Every structure is written in structure tokens, then in C-alpha cells.
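Researcher: Checking consistency across runs. Here is Protein BPS1, chloroplastic again:
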Amino acid sequence: MSRPQEPHRPFFPFGNPFRMISPKGSTLSPQLLAVLHAFEITLGERLKKLTPKSNDEILSLSWMSLAMQMLSETHNDIKTLITDLDLPVHDWDEKWIDVYLDISVKLLDICIAFSSEISRLNQGNLLLQCALHNLNSASSNQFSRARSSLDGWKQHIGSKNPRIEKCGGILDNLVGSLDLPKVKKSPKGKVLMQAMYGVKVQTVFVCSVLAVAFSGSTKNLVDLEVAETYRWAPEFNSLHNLVNEELRVRFSGGRFTVLKELEAVDSAFKELYPIIPDVADPIGTELDLKTVEQLGRATEKLSEGLDLLAKGVDGFFQVVLTGRDALLSNLRSGGTVYDHVSRGNIGAQAVN
């Protein structure tokens, strides 16, 4: 997974986010209001769907995968909205284009970081599978090999991922610039900027939660509050407060990890490791099969969850990259932003 090289621009050098909602002497037509309302209602429904029914669901790999799927769908929605607005490239303010390109380059960086962490966790999972294989073999040195693999897993899983550590700086940049650009004399531009605000808020929130989960630290935790003037604000504020509060509770308890499936593996590891003999050929030694099976089940669930999340992250990467390519292509041709994308199968790039 790689992204094109692009010079970094200042991200969202925006003014008051509410200035574009009801500027002096400017009103939105019923048609434009309908487009905006449809987008915001869908966003609210999506955030509601992401709200977990119980705290146990928070930061499970399946929930994180759903979060990435919802994010891909929202980014596809903004492409549909732009197509519905029929806003030609020559009508785009230069700063809007800078905003979009800067968003995309940062999101591609975050996706690459997430993918690298998923790969790192999968590498650790291979060590667990190796340990389980040795424990189920009849080799004379099965226990020493198993202990070696488990030692390797403990050391590997406790290491840090430099790419994840850099996510905090990207998120800080985004959070510090949540305001929207001033829009003058362009009703369509006002609709676009208000919709993009919703996209950005959801994006920052989801990416910050995954960054916290992967880094094992609350330093990447983002606290946001959306004004109730937005239709999707109640759903977002409810989801945001629930997830962030649970994250703080879990970290205050000194947990090894906040990832549910990884925590289950660590619990099984702690039960199994002390009862594995540390000599090469312990005569007559038998392990508690239930303990071995427990680690096996936990390892399998972790592997399945990581595969699902990897697809979600890659799907989002493709959505962002495709949108970026479409904009650059239309800048060259002078067409309508996303006009040829809307005729393509961009939905297939999202997580199904």
C-alpha cells in the first residue's frame, strides 16, 4: 500500500464553521437544501448504527471494521453529493482543492500506518501458531520450542510501531483546524463545505479511536463536540462520549491492551506459559489441553478479526485514492468533479 507524493499544504485553514450556514443576504434553494439534508440524515443514521449496544463491543476488531466501513460509505456519499451539485472544477475555489488534496494525503498516510500495525499483529500471531503447533507435536523438544515462540510473541507484541506513533501528529493537525472555509457567492459551495465538515468530523473520530487502540495510549484520544445545529450532532455526540469514556476507563485500569481479541490472547497466554516445562524432554509431562485450546481459539479469533479489519482499512484507502485520482484527472480535463467516477463502480472499492 503506497500513496502518491504530494507536498503538504496547511490543512483546513478555515474560519467560523457556521458562517456558511446562514450568511447575510444568502439563502439556499429548496433543491440544495434537499441534497444537504439527505446527506446529513444518512450520516446521522450511519453514526447511530456504529453506536455499540454494549461497552463490550467497543474496540473489538469487528466494531473497528464496521467503523472503517461506515467511513468508506460516508466518503462515497460526499462524492455522490458533489456529483449531485454538478459543480464544475472551474467553480471550485483553489483553497477547496487544497483542502481536499491535503485531506487525502493525510488519510492515505494514516491508512498505511494502520495497515502496518495490522501486519505487525499478524506477525505476532504467527509466533502463537508456531507455539501451538509445537505443543501439539510429539517432538522431544516440543516444550522448549513452544516456550521460545511464546517468548518471541511477548517481546514482539510489546514493541512499538513508529508509523502508529506518527499518527498523533496528523490527528493533532486535523483537530486544530476543524473550522470551515469562508464561502462567498456560491450556494453550492456552502452545501459542499457543510457536508465536508461532517465527513471530516467522522473521519477524525474513527481514525483517532483506531490510533488509540493500536498505540495503547490515550495520547491520541480526540475530544470533539459538534454543535446541535447539525442534524447528525446528537448521534455523533452520543457515540463519541460513549467510546471515549470507555477508552479512558480501560486505560485507567492498566490493561495490557484495549483490543478485545488481543486481550483474550494475552489472558490465555498468561494461563498457559507458566505451566509449560522449561526443559527439553520432561518425562511424563502433560499439559492441560483446555488451556492450550483456549489459546488456540483466541488466536484464531484474533486472526479472523485482523483479516476483516485489514479489508476495511484497504477499502477505505482505495476510496480515498480513487477520489483523489478523480479530482486530479478532472483538474486536467476541466470537467465536473467526480463526473467520470460517478459513472464508474466506485462503490466496489468500499468495504462490502
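Researcher: Does this match what you'd expect to see?
Model: One thing to look at in this run: Residues 5-25, 339-352 have pLDDT under 50 and may be disordered.
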